[in-house]
Amino acid sequence: MKLAVRIITLAILITGFARATVKIDTIGTTGVDLQNYGPVWQRIYYLSGFGIWTAWIKTGMWANFYSFTNHSWSGEVSVFGSQRNAGGNLAVCVNNNSGYYRSTFISSYINREPRWPIVAVESVAGSGIFQMRTPDSSLIDCQRPPITFTANNYLHLVCADPYTADTLLYSRSTDYGINWQDPIPVCGQLLPASPNYNLVGSELSDRLAVIWTNEESTALWVNISNDAGTSWSGPQNIFPVPSSISGAKPGKQGAFAIFDHNDRLNIVTQVWDGTHQYPAEIWHWQENRNPAWSLVYRFAPNSVLANAEPGDPFVLRPTIAEKADGTLFVLWLNYDSLNYEPQTQIARADLFIAQSPDNGRHWSRPFRLTGPDNYSRLCPEIASRVDDSLFIISVVDQLAGIYEQGHGGQTVNPVIVLRVPVSELPGVQETRQPDFPKKIYQSPTLLKSSELITIPLARGLIYDITGKPQKNIHQSGVYFLVNNHTTRKLIIIQ
Predict the structure, then answer these.
(1) What pLDDT score was predicted for residue 489?
(2) Which residues pair with 317 in a beta bridge?
(3) Could you count the other beta carbons within 10 Å of the beta carbon of residue 385?
(4) What is the pLDDT of residue 457?
(5) What is residue 111's predicted lDDT score, i.e. its pLDDT?
(6) pLDDT of res. 184
(7) In sequence order, what are the residues at sequence separation of 6 or more whose Cβ sits closer than 8 angstroms to the Cβ of residue 404?
(8) Closest CA to 90 of 114, 134, 57
(9) Which range of residues forms the domain containing residue 173?
(10) What is the pLDDT of residue 4?
(11) Are residues 319 and 190 in the same domain?
(12) Which of 109, 218, 420, 479 would give a disulfide with 390, using CB separation of 3.0 to 4.6 Å?
């Protein structure tokens, strides 16, 4: 057969070939594109045999719960009711000796002067009925408070000074958020301007970690407590990464962390130079591993068709999860320069994932979970516990571009949870066969739409944008021609 085509030389995003059976539930809506200015905070939690907790920003914090007993979502609810509040996160008590076992706690802060952290707790685990704790005066003048539990049932938070915005303050509650200790600084003399920070606690011990950076810093700082916040190791800079990017930094998107089944701290972050949107990389750091850093994915095309959101690298906001056998999964947001929003000229973003069976030393090829289509995924996060499926929360933006940053109009967007069977994801060895040739055809060959070329439709020579082999092409679209160890991007115009 003959087709009218235009051949344009562009780098392609190589992914796994198969498409996983992804089940998607819409759990709520939001008009807020920028769910996280900085790093992702925990807003989804999965507990085998019981349910899935979720939280997001709408008009303040909202939540929904999926019951495995009822096989249904309870319905989206406003956590703090009429109390004006901004963004926070969720933490679930998973100690079965606790009276709050399997209850979710959600943090936020009063979004007016004085800024003041607030916490709400489910009255009955999984009920979706929240009661707000009386704000503790010791926390007055703090904002943006992520919370987490340690194994001894202490609830911890870290927050920023709203006036100077250059100090990270830590506090803990030994009675489930009723009373809080006077906050103390945990960043030492390393006072970051407008810090982007995260907090993670261990479910196995009293270990706790604060991770922070800022938009301009080439450092990523970690401070660890081994005794539930009583004492701290002191700030440690775990940068630089062994990247070829000059002046590599995490950027405003910061980092995300978990403690694994061996109680080791694992951190994932994006790496770029803070100016150029590519090259950009996803890196994984593991405590006491040598080498500590491993490269998950590098995005480094020769050119792109459309730019990512201004101020963002092409790959960003990674989160990490672990299966009981130690397999690690890293999820991230990946802008697709071949698929952009005509109104804003901004690339739409999709979700990609990779896995590692050996503590992050080797990673599978990226596997595309969503798109390409007319939507852009924002602020994704993977639930840190994994059994036979991955659970992922994300916002589906109907108009690519962050409204709060002046790009595109405001839309009411679905908040979704994806269920991805682990068995359908390619492993490290699986992704090496079959393989796209890694050489990209460089000669700028352009054909007018009226010109014809003959394409041999032998098995495996033409792939669609998802990497699926095509025997026959009957529709216009984007395809890839593989021949003689070169790859060409084909735009089919019929």
Answers:
(1) 59
(2) none
(3) 18
(4) 40
(5) 79
(6) 94
(7) 32, 33, 34
(8) 57
(9) 23-365+374-419
(10) 36
(11) yes
(12) 420
Q: What is the pLDDT of residue 461?
A: 59
Same structural domain, 215 and 273: yes
Question: Do 404 and 460 have their domain in common?
Answer: no
Q: Which residue ranges of the chain lie beneath pLDDT 70?
A: 1-20, 162, 164-165, 191-193, 429-494
Residue 304 lies in a domain: yes
The model carries a pTM of 0.84
Same domain, 399 and 476: no
Question: 19: Cβ–Cβ under 8 A, 6 or more apart, which residues?
Answer: 466, 468
Same domain? 344 vs 445: no
Secondary structure of the chain as H, E, C letters: CEEEEEEECCCCCCCCCCCCCCEEEEEEEECCCCCCCCCCCCCEEEECCCEEEEEEEECEEEEEEEECCCCEECCCEECCCCCCECCCCEEECCCCCCCCCCCEEEEEEECCCCCEEEEEEECCCCCCCEEECCCCHHHCCCECCCEEECCCCCEEEEEECCCCCCCEEEEEECCCCCCCCCCEECCCCCCCCCCEEEEEECCCCCCEEEEEECCCCCCCEEEEECCCCCCCCCCEECCCCCCCCCCCECCCCCEEEEECCCCCEEEEEEEECCCCCCCEEEEEEECCCCCCEEEEEEECCCCCCCECCCCCCCEEEEEEEEECCCCEEEEEEEEEEEEEECCCCEEEEEEEEEEECCCCCCCCCCEECCCCCCCEEEEEEECCEECCEEEEEEEEECCCCCHHHCCCCCCCEEEEEEEEEHHHCCCCCHHHCCCCCCCECCCCCCCCCCCEEECCCCCCCEEECCCCECCCCCCCEEEEEEECCEEEEEEECC
Give the pLDDT of residue 466: 53
Nearest residue to 138 (alpha-carbon basis) of 164, 162, 172, 110? 172
pLDDT of residue 409: 86
Same domain (yes/no): 448, 361: no
Q: Classify residue 424: in a domain, yes or no.
A: no
Looking at the domain assignment, is residue 426 inside a domain?
Answer: no
Asked whether residue 36 is domain-assigned, the answer is: yes
